[in-house]
Amino acid sequence: MRRRDFIKAASLLAGASAPAIWTGRAAAAAKPVTLKFDSYISETSGPSRLDEWYLKQLETRTNGAVKVRRYWAQSLNKVGEHLSAVRDGTSEMSLISPGYYQSQLPVTRGLDWYYRMHRSDALQWLCRDVYAEYQPLRDEWERRYNSKVLYWTNWYYAPLVTRQPINSIADIRGKRIRGYGAANEVIERLGGTAVPMAAPEVYTALERGVLDGVYGFDFITAVAYKLHEIAPYFTDIGDGPHGPAATIINARVWNNFPDPVKQVSDQIVGEIYGGEYARIYEAAARQYVKTAKAEGTKFSSLPQAEKDQARALVQPAQTDGWVDRVAKPAGLDGLAMQTLVNNAIAKYDKQGSLKRFDELAAEA
């Protein structure tokens, strides 16, 4: 595309008050951009719904000048391979869940904790701001892994999914519970036995009695995986939002985008942070609450006193552990990062509005 066509298209995008659409002339003049999007989860999982919305908007608003090939459910790379694949350019875009990359992403682990916030949309804004404000976090993604974070997302809320009802913290003691990332530590601190296990193995493990429960599956994915067929008790234990994650793109690929494509992408990302994330997740959660209730799922929430007890068992020990055992050995000022986190919690947590699965179930 000639420079004056880029400038004209960019000015149209910047001046639009409604969602920007790349003009037909600009699209016709541009060399088509073809991308591979590669995810380890299925297209029905929570974060996939947001990713698909972004990808479809990118294609639509560029009038087809950008085309994305989707590879869901480990059809291109296996779980744990996506971060290096994006870095090396063998995969161009991907969802990265840091719990699978704890040794590779030690700084990002400073965002992965429980019992500090209440709303998952607030956690998304927190991750965005801390990423912008804490240079070592940006360096971890941009320099070490040659990637641009397109947007932060997360895994909504994670119920404690069990075969038997959980009415107190005492009921968790001794239970064999599948965990993921920082969730493993929560299980152990609450008296359970954390069992690391790949997601595709969980249903069979529940069915055979190898597991008593599951923690670390977001609600939407837990229902999509049919876990409620074997473990019908879904309990809110007061832990708050679950599993920060990032959708990233290879930096070279991003830098080679025409400027109008970058502007379209930035506008879409602005809408994600501006409420689209919450809209997509709440719609999906309401749908899955209806499905789960119809199929016999029992929803509950621990009494506040039990939640307070759980919080005292997990925090501040979990955050302090990251500062002492991860940040310090890596030469990071972990306290400085956690100060930024605390500031963002104070700023955003009361602004968050995305309802939990148990709240939606009470309304249904």
From TrEMBL:
Q: Which domain of life is it from?
A: Bacteria
List the GO biological process terms: transmembrane transport
- Please state the span of the N-terminal signal peptide per the UniProt entry: 1-20
Q: Which SUPFAM superfamilies match?
A: Periplasmic binding protein-like II
- InterPro entries for this protein: DctP_fam (IPR018389), TAT_signal (IPR006311), TRAP_DctP_sf (IPR038404)
Q: Does the keyword RNA-binding apply?
A: no
One Pfam family for this entry, by name? DctP
UniProt-listed CDD domains: PBP2_TRAP_DctP1_3_4_like
User: Keyword set for this entry?
Assistant: Signal
Disulfide bond listed as a keyword: no
By its UniProt entry, which Gene3D superfamilies does this protein fall under?
Bacterial extracellular solute-binding protein, family 7
Q: Which PANTHER family match?
A: BLL6794 PROTEIN, PTHR33376
Its protein name is Putative extracellular solute-binding protein
Q: Which organism is it from?
A: Achromobacter insuavis AXX-A
